[in-house]
Task: inverse folding
């Protein structure tokens, strides 16, 4: 694992409630990670590949060029997938207090 990339993940892990910070290639290979022992980082990376694929197909269906951020709200954890450089995806997994997902519906103003 690239120590330079692992060091880039350290600031994310300093936040209370962040259980894992991973850098994943778009084809689902784990490039770098910093995670609690109970997070199977290889398995998470493999699952993220499927999410990326589905998101890309949805973007294509909606005539969009690419997918930006992907957020996932689970029972006790939340995850966010975000572009990180050219070919990598940053995946953060944490408690709802650490990763709060907020949706805003903007109204049209005259």
Result:
């Amino acid at each position: 694992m690239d120590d330079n990339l692992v060091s880039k993940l350290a600031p994310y892990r300093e936040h209370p409630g962040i259980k894992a910070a991973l850098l994943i290639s778009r084809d689902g290979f784990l490039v770098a990670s910093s995670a609690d022992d109970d997070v199977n980082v290889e398995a998470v990376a493999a699952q993220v590949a499927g999410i990326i694929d589905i998101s890309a197909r949805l973007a294509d269906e909606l005539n969009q060029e690419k997918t930006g951020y992907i957020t996932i709200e689970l029972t006790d954890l939340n995850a966010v997938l975000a572009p990180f450089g050219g070919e990598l995806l940053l995946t953060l997994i944490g408690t709802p207090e650490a990763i709060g997902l907020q949706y805003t519906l903007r109204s049209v103003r005259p």
Summary: Helices lie at 3-13, 41-61. The first strand starts at residue 18 and ends at 25.
